[in-house]
Every structure is written in C-alpha cells, then in structure tokens.
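User: I'm new to structure prediction. If I give you an amino acid sequence, what do you actually give back? Let's try with this one:
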Amino acid sequence: MISMEYFGSLVNVMRKENYYTVVLNVFPKVELDIYSDIRIWESDFSESTSSSYIEFKISKALLEKSNNKRKGVNKVYPYNFRENQWYQLETDSGGEIFGLFYKDINTLDPQKIKINNLKFIDGRSTIGRELNKTFELVLPDSSEQEINAVLGDYNPNFVAVYNVGQGSCNAICDEDGKPLVYYDMGGGYGSHSMTYPKGVDFCFSSKQPIILSHWHEDHWRAALDPFNNDAIKSSWIVPRQTLRPGAFNLAVEIHKKGRLLIWPKSLTSLKVSVGQVLKCGGTSINSSGLALIVVIASKDDVIENLLPGDSRYVHIPQVHLNKYDNLVVTHHGGVNPGKIPVPKYIDNNVHVYSYGSPNHYTHPRASTITEHNVQSWKNRKDSLGGSIAIGKNLKLTKINKHVSSHSCCNLFIVQI
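Assistant: Good question. You get back a string of structure tokens that encode the predicted 3D arrangement of the chain. For your 416 residues, that looks like this:
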C-alpha cells in the first residue's frame, strides 16, 4: 500500500485484557480542504471525497511504552479511545501496528497494512476544531409539517424486521408486504460484512421514506449497497448528530439526490400516520437519535410496537408510561439496555433480536436476553433465522404477495 496520511474518527473500540481492537473511519489528509468546502452541499460541486475503514489491534504494553517519555519514545498513542474522537495516522511499510484497510463500506476483502505515527487530535486544537466543524450537519431543521407530509397517510398492517446481518433494517408494511416507511437501512459491514446477505434488494417502487434512528454505519450501510441505488433518492428523516466521514458523505448524497429532513431541535415527539416518532434524550450517538412506536389499528384492537434503534430505553421519552404488544430489542441485544419496557400481555407478545453471526460483540448478550425474559418478554425471534413480520393474524402467502409479484425487491418474510 502506498504511504498515505489519514485523519480518522473513532467508530468503535473493544477493550480486552492485553490489547485494544480499534476501528477508525478515515479519509486522506489531502481531502480535508474538499470536505471543509461549504459548496460540497451544492448539486454542481464536482470534487469527490472518499471514506474508508481501518481496523487494528494495539497492545496495552505498546501504549504504556509509547507514552513513557523517560524511555525516550516520541510516538504518542492515546490512552483513552472514545467514540468520534479524531486521530491522525500514516500507513507505510515501516509501521509497527498491523491493521486491515477496508476501501469502502462494501469491501469484503480488506487489505493488510502497517500503521505508523498514530496520534490523538485534541478537539481544542486548531485542526481538532476544524475537523469537528467540518463534519457538522449545516442544513437547517425541517418543520413538523414537512415531516408529516413525507410520512404520508398510511394504514400499516405489520412491522418487518429484515435479515441484514449485524445491523438493523425495519419497515412498516401494508397487508401485502409492501414497505410504506423504512426505519433504518443498515446491515453488517467491515469485519461483519460477511453477515450481510448477498444481493439484498429493497423495495423503492414508491420512493418509500426512511426514518434513521442514528448515524452509526450498521443502521445505514444498505443505502450504499450497489443493489440499492434508489435509497439515496428517497426522503430521509434524520437526527442532528455528530457525523463521521462515511455518514457525512451519505448525508451530502441524500441532500443532492433525494431529500434530507433534519429533526427539529425543540421537538420531543411527533404523531404520524404510522404511529409516533420520539427524539431520544441521551448524549451518546446511540441514545440521542429517533425511536419509533408503530401503531397498527384495526376494528378490534390497537397493536403498539416499540422500535428503539440502539437507544437505551430510559432515554426514550415517556416510554415507561406505556405497555407494548411487541418490541425490537435495543442495540441488537447489547449489554446494559436500561430499564426494560413492560409488555401489554404476558402470554401474547413478541420481542425480536436483529443481529448477525458471528459478531465481535457477542450480540445478543446472555444477560440482556435474561433481563427481557424476566420482564415477561417471552416469545423471542431472531433475524438470524430470516426476515420477520410482527403483527396479528398474519399469513406468509398474504404478506409476501408484493415481493412475489415484483422484481424490484427480494426480501421475503419467513418468520411470523
């Protein structure tokens, strides 16, 4: 690999006993001027930017050695890795850290690299302030009226939880299984790319809108799948959050080719035709996005389904004032979900885990499964077994009618 300097935003760090596994979303240092040009949001701006991913392991011993000035080592490695912090690094043959380079979010076979001069960038420094400012959403908030207009006047019949590997993609569907609104458009990527099913083709026959829970890659990566080119031409309702380079590029593309509606800062919740969108009140990316309660009404009953994205339950406004028929478990069944909502009926409820296998996070966690079981969530379904429909009195032949008769999509429901 040619020697290259990169800026990278921290995606994830996994701490083990003797080492860290770190993932950075990187872009070449020479592209910073392009990223920081405000004209990048304009349709006639022609200069392109790239976004890649680097994964590497670094031992705690190397961190301690490199930070001990008395030993005369000049390289400065950060002691504490935190999400969305910025780093600078160089790839060259003389590097002492071995890593994997994923050219883009669709890369299946990463390139082996060596990393040198990994440095933490202080957010208070000149370059740190420039990077943080560059990757902000500069567009104005949308209005309640604009969001309601995009979400239309729909009559949902069930919620689909699609099998997209280690990620999340859901849809609110009509009685024939046609998606009306998507909630997230994610899937496995990077070291989890093998969990993302090949040839996944989503339905955008009606330019279905997408509600994005938050800007983590495993909740939007399917929008950049070559089989899924129409996703960025749709309307997206998104939270205003700190972006990494990959998410920033996606936001720019949606703004140019589709429509990007940014959730109003002062709006806590909004009733829409498919239920209610809620702005989560946490501080992390996971817990500061958009949750969704899907309400399916019939003559005899009202079914309420909670879709929290990756937010801890406690950060979803007034979530514990209600009981729910069904639940998509937060954060793929990850650790520490917070106080778990109560099911409406102890003997008649469904909770779903959306994840891929194998995954480095051991999702769903055994402790999280137990916590939900203790709270009387009894009927468990896993997306690993195929796409799932959550609803009442569903029949596979009926809810797969749209997919069976349209070549534009191939996501068959196999679990009800």
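You can read the tokens as a compact description of the fold. Here is one thing that stands out. Helices lie at 32-35, 60-66, 126-134, 144-151, 245-257, 366-374, 396-399, 401-405.
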